[in-house]
């Protein structure tokens, strides 16, 4: 520990003490004094603009920092979408190196159309520390929900069972506007389905997150960025969509936005009602053989209400609140056929019907205070959060065994999650470096009640032995500091360190409990070398943690059928990973990244047979190393054809930590080709064909078989692009089957699951009012929700 602390201290001192020669710190704002983010600032040596010296893009606060060779006279050219370009003379004096640039709005007839074309982003972008999928410009993610958008995002794997991750890597944290949603599994799926694609601006895949972010998520973060509101006035949209899988599904969405000089507010309402059929087949090959075939009908319906308001007290101070409520009901009716054999002799046949109802109510409230501290952009953020989730889950099972005996029971379970958190963040740009410092406290509470009832002769009889309660409390204190510095025009560095201390206590009615305290350091480092405007080299490192969810720690036994049950493990410990990436970007079109990840104490479900029972446990079961390379390429041909391709190769090697888990190694390859063809010059009619393919790969002791997806679609824009009609077909070849084997020391299991991925989607969206208004969306900070399940 001392050694790591000394290294971290030396790192920060080296960054903060290296002097930067001839740095110009500046800010771009409009004539009203409001910051202009993402403006282009170019420094030239002469007025004819032929000899560019430096070029930067302002951050979200309109700030930039550039270096020049020496003191003297320079020309500064500034441009931003929707604003008139400006070029001004600037006499650089190292003792007075602050520059403020004011720009004004364009006054051009038909400016709406010009802005639409000028601000159009590329569908895919590769930035220093993240991959960006701009969903606004992709017809593959129109008229669908948030989970479908993730499934269509390159480098991301997502399905209806809550298996969401980054290609070639393990656990991931899901965030919305830089703030984790703090749900996992089926609860996370339900929440993502309440978000409409019309409200999503982009998806960011962050594989080595900076120290400012929570350390949770072994392989990084998937950040869903919602649309913001940069203009004044009223606007809104309404949309409806129809989805056909094995069953029909419908969804509706509406949004209303308003912004004035003082108030920025948005109201979003969404509703969905859909059905699908899932098939799950599991076979255990041991001394005794078990075949378990499940056909399940899932009926999902629910709605979501989101309200945001931001009030500007003055030009430097604002307060606001964000409230989100979601109500989701999931009814799952399953037909299960189980066959138990010993050798070639059938021991028993079981036919089971289950009826599972789940009603989830989620409330989330964020209140915040923001204050600008000076003209350089120093800023204070203070926020408080409350998350409350209630899940009522009655489960009925009726089984017929071939020996004419019946096994029937009912389970009534209730889950209650509450999370309280508060944080303080400072953003501190100085003349020679930019600093960020902050702290946060989070309290996580969960209470589980499980009542087990044997159903006999039409009467439910309470079973005190199988019933159980579990109470869990966790406190997390965190603090971080980051420093970033431009050493020269070609070299930039950023380093940070985060410390998190966790104290947890859980106890169940049957006497099992968990009690632990631990503190860990999480360093991060970034280095960028830019020899020219077309070539960028990056090096990054971060350490991450993956904490068990509340259900994984819950020792309560959940019966899946008469001879199968799952139980949590209160003795699980967190998993840690170290991630290193070396990247190269050419001309913002080609990106190549080599990566290495080592994770320890990974936990997962382990399936075994115990006296004829199929038992599922959570265990810290394997360590894993992963080395590979990812390449992405984006370009537009003939002004009509947008092409994006990506390929990911990795070598994965795992080592079992317990006797029954067998370590595996494999070479894996994933590739995807995405094509969008604009059928007319105005690009109001577009056609897409996408194909992605996962070749066999391993994760822990599980080896996945081939999986692929062919998708196609059509997008039509009418009435000056206010009305959009989208038609897409996913999984045309029905290749999104999750098949593979789990290998243990004396046995193995085979899985073959399909979750109704083949679908046809038709959606209609209409934008009304001021179509430049996108809706208020401040960043709500709530970090532990993804572990609430």
UniProtKB/TrEMBL annotation:
<keyword id="KW-0732">Signal</keyword>
<keyword id="KW-0675">Receptor</keyword>
<dbReference type="GO" id="GO:0009279">
    <property type="term" value="C:cell outer membrane"/>
</dbReference>
<dbReference type="Pfam" id="PF13620">
    <property type="entry name" value="CarboxypepD_reg"/>
</dbReference>
<dbReference type="InterPro" id="IPR008969">
    <property type="entry name" value="CarboxyPept-like_regulatory"/>
</dbReference>
<feature type="signal peptide">
    <location>
        <begin position="1"/>
        <end position="20"/>
    </location>
</feature>
<dbReference type="Pfam" id="PF14905">
    <property type="entry name" value="OMP_b-brl_3"/>
</dbReference>
<dbReference type="InterPro" id="IPR036942">
    <property type="entry name" value="Beta-barrel_TonB_sf"/>
</dbReference>
<dbReference type="InterPro" id="IPR037066">
    <property type="entry name" value="Plug_dom_sf"/>
</dbReference>
<protein>
    <submittedName>
        <fullName>Outer membrane receptor proteins, mostly Fe transport</fullName>
    </submittedName>
</protein>
<feature type="domain" description="Outer membrane protein beta-barrel">
    <location>
        <begin position="371"/>
        <end position="766"/>
    </location>
</feature>
<dbReference type="InterPro" id="IPR041700">
    <property type="entry name" value="OMP_b-brl_3"/>
</dbReference>
<keyword id="KW-0472">Membrane</keyword>
<keyword id="KW-0998">Cell outer membrane</keyword>
């Amino acid at each position: 520990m001392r050694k790591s602390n000394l290294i971290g201290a030396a790192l920060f001192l080296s960054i903060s003490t290296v002097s930067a020669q001839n740095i110009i710190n500046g800010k771009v704002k409009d004539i009203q004094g409001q910051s202009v983010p993402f403006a282009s600032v170019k420094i030239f040596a002469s007025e004819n603009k032929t000899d560019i010296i430096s070029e930067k893009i302002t951050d979200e606060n309109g700030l930039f920092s550039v270096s020049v060779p020496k003191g003297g006279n320079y020309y500064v050219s500034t441009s931003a979408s929707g604003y008139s370009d400006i070029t001004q003379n600037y006499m650089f004096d190292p003792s007075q190196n602050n520059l403020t640039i004011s720009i004004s709005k364009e006054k051009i007839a038909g400016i709406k159309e010009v802005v639409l074309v000028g601000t159009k982003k590329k569908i895919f972008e590769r930035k220093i520390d993240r991959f960006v999928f701009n969903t606004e410009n992709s017809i593959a993610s129109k008229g669908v929900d948030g989970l479908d958008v993730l499934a269509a995002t390159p480098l991301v794997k997502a399905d209806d069972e809550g298996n969401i991750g980054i290609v070639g890597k393990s656990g991931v944290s899901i965030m919305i506007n830089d703030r984790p949603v703090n749900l996992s599994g089926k609860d996370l799926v339900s929440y993502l389905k309440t978000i409409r694609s019309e409200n999503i601006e982009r998806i960011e895949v962050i594989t080595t997150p900076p120290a400012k972010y929570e350390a949770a998520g072994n392989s990084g973060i998937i950040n869903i960025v919602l649309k913001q509101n940069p203009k004044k006035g009223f606007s809104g949209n309404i949309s409806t969509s129809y989805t056909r899988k094995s069953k029909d599904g419908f969804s509706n969405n509406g949004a209303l936005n308003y912004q004035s000089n003082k108030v920025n507010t948005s109201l979003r309402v969404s509703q969905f009602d859909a059905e699908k059929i899932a098939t799950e087949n599991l076979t255990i090959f041991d001394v005794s053989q078990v075949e378990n075939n499940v056909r399940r009908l899932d009926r999902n319906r629910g709605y979501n209400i989101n309200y945001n308001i931001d009030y500007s007290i003055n030009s430097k101070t604002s307060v606001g609140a964000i409230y989100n409520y979601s109500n989701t009901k999931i009814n799952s009716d399953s037909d299960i056929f189980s066959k138990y054999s010993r050798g070639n002799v059938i021991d028993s046949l079981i036919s089971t019907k289950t009826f599972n109802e789940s009603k989830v109510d989620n409330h989330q409230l964020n209140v915040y205070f923001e204050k600008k501290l000076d003209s350089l952009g120093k800023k204070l953020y203070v926020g408080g959060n409350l998350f409350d989730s209630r899940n009522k889950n009655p489960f009925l099972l009726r089984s017929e065994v071939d020996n004419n005996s019946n096994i029937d029971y009912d389970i009534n379970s209730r889950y209650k999650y509450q999370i309280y958190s508060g944080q303080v963040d400072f953003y501190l740009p100085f003349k020679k470096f930019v600093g960020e410092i902050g702290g946060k406290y989070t309290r996580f509470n969960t209470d589980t009640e499980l009542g087990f009832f044997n159903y006999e002769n039409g009467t439910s009889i309470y079973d005190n032995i199988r019933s159980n309660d579990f109470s869990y409390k966790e406190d997390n204190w965190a603090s971080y500091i980051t420093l970033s510095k431009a050493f020269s025009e070609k070299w930039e560095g950023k380093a940070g360190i985060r410390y998190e201390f966790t104290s947890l206590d859980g106890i169940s009615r049957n006497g099992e409990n968990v009690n632990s305290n631990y503190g860990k350091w999480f360093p991060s480092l970034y280095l960028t070398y830019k020899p020219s405007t077309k070539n960028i080299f990056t090096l990054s490192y971060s350490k991450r943690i993956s904490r068990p969810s509340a259900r994984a720690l819950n020792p309560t036994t959940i019966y899946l059928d008469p001879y199968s049950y799952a139980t949590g493990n209160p003795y699980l410990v967190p998993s840690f990973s170290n991630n290193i990436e070396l990247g190269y970007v050419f001309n913002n079109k080609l990106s190549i990244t080599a990566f290495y990840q080592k994770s320890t104490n990974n936990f997962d479900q382990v399936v075994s047979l115990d006296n004829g029972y199929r038992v599922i446990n959570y265990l810290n079961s394997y360590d894993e190393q992963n080395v590979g390379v990812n390449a992405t390429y984006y370009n537009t041909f003939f002004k009509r054809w947008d092409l994006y391709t990506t390929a990911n190769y990795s070598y994965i090697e795992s080592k079992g930590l317990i006797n029954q888990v067998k370590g595996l190694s494999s070479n894996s390859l994933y590739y995807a080709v995405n094509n969008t063809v604009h059928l007319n010059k105005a690009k109001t009619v577009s056609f897409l064909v996408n194909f992605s393919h996962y070749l066999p790969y391993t994760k822990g002791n599980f080896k996945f078989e081939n999986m692929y997806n062919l998708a196609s679609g059509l997008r039509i824009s009418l009435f000056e692009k206010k009305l959009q009609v989208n038609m897409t077909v996913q999984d045309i070849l029905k290749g999104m089957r999750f098949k593979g084997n789990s290998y243990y020391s004396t046995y193995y299991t085979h899985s073959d699951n399909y979750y109704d991925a083949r679908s046809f989607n038709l959606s209609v969206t209409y934008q009304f009012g001021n179509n430049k208004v996108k809706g208020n969306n401040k960043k709500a900070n709530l970090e532990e929700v993804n572990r609430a399940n």
